[in-house]
Design brief:
2 helices, alpha+beta, 8-stranded antiparallel beta sheet, 199 residues, oxidoreductase, globular, 4-stranded antiparallel beta sheet, Jelly Rolls, Prolyl 4-hydroxylase alpha subunit domain-containing protein, 17% helix
């Protein structure tokens, strides 16, 4: 893992299995009609100019291909347990209390990105650490990069790279997704997941 100032962590080659990556991408392609516009808040409002992705929730159980379900379990259990052990003071909830679903997001070329925001919405929101796993590699010249704004260090720019996992603190690190230019030969595909604090 590459550590960026203690607030952002990057892991390349998380899975290393082309069969899982292929299964995830194929699942997205086969279910494009089920994707819907990403929402800006708990009211369910969506604004294409502020957030241009289309999303699909996957839980790792209901009617999903075995390799897709297996990947969600890798996020939920293997990565989750490693985070809990590595950051005991964060009091990450055990896997049975982890966020139930993963979010598959697709940004099409020529669309909007996602404006600067914080994942944590306050109040009863238990999200503690955010994870973004890339299914596609995008040349930085085509846009689509993730910009992170840690409190204790300078801005970090991370380009989408297949099989790359990015972790950052949900309550501290504001971030945004740059728009994907029309010149991009492919969509920006990623799966996001959130690890919760103990209630």
């Amino acid at each position: 893992a590459v550590r960026e100032g203690g607030e952002v962590y990057v892991v390349d080659g998380l899975v290393g299995e082309n069969s899982i990556l292929t299964a995830l991408s194929s699942y997205g392609e086969q279910n494009l009609s089920h994707f819907h516009s990403g929402e800006m808040d708990v009211t369910g409002r969506s604004f294409q100019s502020l957030r241009g992705d289309r999303i699909l929730w996957i839980d790792g159980h209901q009617g999903e291909p075995p390799l897709v379900a297996a990947f969600v379990q890798i996020l939920r259990e293997t990565v989750g347990e490693a985070i809990a052990e590595g950051f005991p003071d964060a009091k990450i909830a055990g896997r049975l209390n982890a966020c139930a679903d993963a979010m598959y997001a697709i940004y099409p070329p020529g669309g909007s990105g996602f404006v600067k925001h914080l994942d944590y919405s306050g109040g009863e929101d238990l999200r503690c650490m955010s994870a973004v796993y890339y299914l596609s590699s995008i040349d930085p010249k085509h846009g689509g990069s993730l910009l992170l704004y840690p409190k204790n260090s300078k801005q970090i720019t991370i380009s989408p790279k297949k099989d790359r996992l990015v972790l950052f603190w949900s309550r501290e690190v504001e971030h945004e997704v740059l728009p994907l230019k029309e010149s991009s030969p492919e969509f920006r595909e990623a799966i996001s997941y959130w690890y919760l604090k103990e209630p």
